[in-house]
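Lecture 7, part B: from sequences to assemblies.

Below are the input chains for today's worked example.
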Amino acid sequence: MVCTKKNLNSGLTITSRVIGSGNTLPILNNILFKTEEGRLKLSSTNLEMAINTWVGGKIEEEGEITVPARLINDYVNNIAADKITITSKNHTLHLEAEKAQTHIKGLSSEEFPLIPEIKEESFTKVDGKEFSHVIKEVTFAAAFSETQPEISGVLFSFDTDTLTLAATDRYRLAEGKVKLSTQVSAPKQVIVPARAVNELGRIMGSGVVEILLGDAQICFKAPDIELVSRLIEGQYPDYKQIIPGSYVTEAEVGRQALIQTLKAASLFASENNNIELDLNPQNKQIVIKSQSSQVGDSEIGLDAKISGQKNTIVFNFRYLLECLNSLPDENIILKIIGASSPAAIVPAGRENYLYIVMPIKI
Amino acid sequence: MVCTKKNLNSGLTITSRVIGSGNTLPILNNILFKTEEGRLKLSSTNLEMAINTWVGGKIEEEGEITVPARLINDYVNNIAADKITITSKNHTLHLEAEKAQTHIKGLSSEEFPLIPEIKEESFTKVDGKEFSHVIKEVTFAAAFSETQPEISGVLFSFDTDTLTLAATDRYRLAEGKVKLSTQVSAPKQVIVPARAVNELGRIMGSGVVEILLGDAQICFKAPDIELVSRLIEGQYPDYKQIIPGSYVTEAEVGRQALIQTLKAASLFASENNNIELDLNPQNKQIVIKSQSSQVGDSEIGLDAKISGQKNTIVFNFRYLLECLNSLPDENIILKIIGASSPAAIVPAGRENYLYIVMPIKI
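Predicted structure of the full complex, as structure tokens:
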């Protein structure tokens, strides 16, 4: 077949993302090339999730083969070409451009794992860009733990016209909402592996994403891209019960300034990651304190709009930084009850996101 | 003393560069703070080389102390401040800014290694920017080998109004020339450790660099920055004898296009790094070929201005890429005698640089 370098390149880049290092099965390092209904279909899988992309072009002869993902991706990236002609013969892929030609040894497409297809009709739709944003703000909070499979995933709760994503590792919780483009007829909850959700956030661009639900699989379809993932079985923890109903102190502060100050303070928290925040509504300051018997100590004031009572709380600074780094907002609001109750971070001026973090009890 | 955050920051960043990881002597992880003639002097050393920088400010009391380089560098980087007050007491450094204060535990300045001072007068001067460029283009070619100490350094040859830098690992050689701002009275050659030369290239900005020669040391002085390095004893190989007097084929080609093509071709050279270049003056093409019994093969043509005879040569692609990546020029000229003679790369339109590389004999 003949296609443009640009289209082939972008298909290969997306498909390669699933492929990790150290696969024990060599075929999992390969991308499946297959002609399908007048287009070239590229597929990759790690047995937990799979990505399909389609490249338009002129098919002269049907064919299929698998070749090493990294090799072909790097090669196409580095050759100067407008159009590329692809043929396959004897388990070898032949690429030909105006001034370049290559033979890449592959493996038979028969060895490639079957990627499940979901036969059900579309369940709902969502805007790709908004979906990506929420994914980024939520997924980092999942537990990457094999001993607790449910919380190694992200909970997708579909209800009427809203999709709520939630992730927790039992020390903190992130929850984000995105509007659905089409209402769902009945509420539905599924748990999707965090790694698949992460990839989804990276590859979904603007445009509508269609969501299909199978028995044990979920499929996200964007134009020319499709991600299929297995679902995680089990009962997701009832996280709603730990979200406080009200708070004692609230402080609005610049997100970047808080990140920088936490980074400076963290240099003196090497022994336990503990950082103390003193919120003082009188002098409108959050004072951030840290100390280490070996290294020294630090005390930094940060201007903030503070309402409610004077309050003190201690956090693992990593749990704050991960949330703050995932948000795009200029200002955030920190909401506190007291030294031994869960605290919240929300973006200022936006209601679709909530982060709950447990304090360190001293 | 009181100084600006900006000046302290830039002094710390430069001084920290000498400090590697895994120092067995804890004091070598520290920066020496010392008041000196109305300024703050910051010093670091790895016993082979040392960097001194000076920060202006208002000294109220003389003092000296050493503190961990990475810690203080990261801290000052992350606090919001215009002015910083620095005091030391009981082996603890106290930094105070408008809203931040910190105590950093240090080690006594008495434990800090003595940094040699060169008493001799200035030997010569050179423009910092031009010097940095030549350093970057030459130093990578040195052998980072402890068994051959002479070629683990860069040869500095001072002659009349020219400084020539040369580095080789016996498989390739880089030579660059830079004009001196003041003539030297007698020719002189010294060997400077490649790591010190590398750092020198990174920290020297615009402005004049003064060069001082001691018995076993060399010192490079820029405004507010000084790098002192030990010299390597021994006889540098007589590299001039391997530079060919004339060539059989010359090809001018775009540097970036050649880099990209070599990268694509290198994917099929995993077994031995060998890449074949066929230069053909008739069709004005360099054809770059590579193959691997396991992976496949590649053949890519590159437009070039070629004069002389048709010619073929095989290189280790890494030796070509290292040189091409170090140059800023748009076009380079590849000069070849034949398959078993040294070849040359020079920038098109510039005469102060030469790279010689041995071919792979098949």
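Note for the exam: Chain B has three domains: 2-111, 124-240, 243-357. Keep this in mind when comparing with the next example.
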